[in-house]
Amino acid sequence: MTAGLLGSTQPLAECHDLALVDLDGVAYHGHLPIEHASDSLAGARQRGLRLLFVTNNASREPEDVAAQLSGLDIPTTPDEVMTAAQACAALLRTRLEPGASVLVVGGRGLVTAVEQAGFRLASGADDAPDAVAQGFAPELGWSDLAEAAYAVAGGAWYVASNRDLSLPTARGFAPGNGALVGAVVAATGVEPDSAGKPAPTMYRLAVDRVGAQRPLVIGDRLDTDLAGARAGGYPGLHVLTGVSGARDAVLAEPGLRPHYVGADLRSLLEPHPEPEQAGDGWWRCGARAARVVDGVLEVDRQGPQGIDVVRAACSAAWTAADAGEAVAASGVPQLTA
């Protein structure tokens, strides 16, 4: 699949049969709705697009996630949710038989997923577990991480639900599961296998669950959602309502680049014009254009503001970077979608 942006003359909701939708930053912000999310997802469903919400959160049950979404006017059933806990349990099944012993270091969601996968729960490292499954939970403490380290050092297979270094909260960004995993890695020198994004494990499980043929990944974070799309070979839509902004997309390395860029989830219901390179060195998308000159991104200020300027800028910057021309972050202006 191309490392550049793709184009679509039809709305994306009509080109794909399944949308793998991230939660925080895409469907909602914490406990608050995101403007246009509910109406856009409803419109996508009306066009025949199935939705499956995919989250790196391993502490919550699918029922809780579905209830939150439904409370934000996005009607969702538990079977339309795929958590990192479920992916972690599925990853354990690739090497362990049902009945194997697993030390769970995480929240209730991970405990439930591991139990439902047929594993026995170990109470600590002294039980000599076959594996350690670690996921985020706000109540985790030093003693929990120490038990994980003792078990891993003793030979237990180490599996992490995800390796997100940070997670968004109402007060800002706090340490995520990746930060806590880092403590165990520092103590043992053992790197875990990861089930969550950016590993494509969850996406593949979700696609297999519904038998989709034309899936689309939708996310707000380049380093998890869209990197996972690239790793799994799935087209990815980057919406600018969460962590990664327009400048982040412009400066993205090949493995983090989205295939489509939209201001918000309304972009599911719209065509996506493909940027084209003109003979004068400018990349044009709709009425907007951009080019890179001596490592500096130049944007044609003529024409209306909108997402097309971001698309043109991505194409110009990515082409220059792939040709060996350094595009300086200081040379990329703020872009308004």
Automatic annotation (TrEMBL):
What EC number(s) are associated with this protein in UniProt?
3.-.-.-
Q: Which InterPro entries match?
A: GNAT-like (IPR041065), HAD-like_sf (IPR036412), HAD-SF_hydro_IIA (IPR006357), HAD_sf (IPR023214)
- Give yes or no: UniProt keyword Hydrolase: yes
Give the molecular function GO annotations.
Answer: phosphatase activity
* GCN5-related N-acetyltransferase-like domain span: 285-329
Matches recorded under Pfam families: GNAT_like, Hydrolase_6, Hydrolase_like
An example Gene Ontology CC term for this record = cytoplasm
Q: Which PANTHER family match?
A: 4-NITROPHENYLPHOSPHATASE-RELATED, D-GLYCEROL 3-PHOSPHATE PHOSPHATASE
Protein name, entry field: Putative hydrolase YutF
Native organism: Isoptericola dokdonensis DS-3
Gene for this chain: yutF
